């Protein structure tokens, strides 16, 4: 198409459930941005405030999000990552979106 450009839009989503988050908790407007920088700033702010060892939110393009291929996912399935068991020191594979308190790689898992 001549004279039209398609802009990539970015969405901020929860890594444990895949749900898009809202810009403001009191409004229904989803965190969809025209540029990656503001989306990344929001994700970094949420991750910092969460206090968790692992990221709780991430950024991907709207196309990737709607097709289920965001960075935490591979071909529509959750990506597996290698972690080290805190107690035994053994390496193992777990889903990338495993909450930290459910992961044997975190201290909170062993203190519950």
Q: Based on helices, strands and strand pairing, what is the structural class?
A: alpha+beta
Report mean pLDDT, rounded to a whole number: 78
Tally of structural domains = 1
Large-scale geometry = elongated
N-to-C CA distance: 58 Å
Across the major sheet, the strand order is 2-1-3
Question: How would you classify the quaternary structure?
Answer: single chain
Strand-helix topology:
Blueprint: E1 10-14, E2 32-33, H1 36-50, E3 57-61, H2 62-67, E4 73-74, E5 77-78, E6 80-84, E7 91-95, H3 107-111
Antiparallel strand pairs: 1-2, 1-3, 4-5, 6-7
What does this structure look like?
- The chain is of the alpha+beta class and 112 residues long.
- The protein has one domain.
- It has helices at residues 36-50, 62-67, 107-111, and strands at 10-14, 32-33, 57-61, 73-74, 77-78, 80-84, 91-95.
- The strands form three sheets. The chain has a three-stranded antiparallel sheet.
- β6 and β7 (91-95) form a beta hairpin.
- The model has no long low-confidence stretch (mean pLDDT 78).
């Amino acid at each position: 198409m001549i004279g039209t450009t398609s802009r990539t839009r970015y969405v901020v989503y929860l890594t444990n459930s895949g749900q898009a988050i809202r810009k403001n908790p009191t409004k229904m407007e989803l965190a969809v941005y025209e540029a990656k920088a503001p989306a990344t700033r929001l994700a970094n702010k949420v991750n910092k405030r969460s206090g968790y060892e692992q990221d709780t939110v991430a950024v991907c393009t709207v196309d990737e999000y709607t097709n289920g291929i965001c960075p935490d996912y591979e071909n529509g399935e959750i990506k597996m990552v290698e972690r080290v068991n805190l107690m035994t020191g053994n390496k193992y594979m777990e889903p990338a979106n495993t909450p930290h308190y459910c992961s044997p790689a975190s201290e909170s898992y062993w203190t519950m």
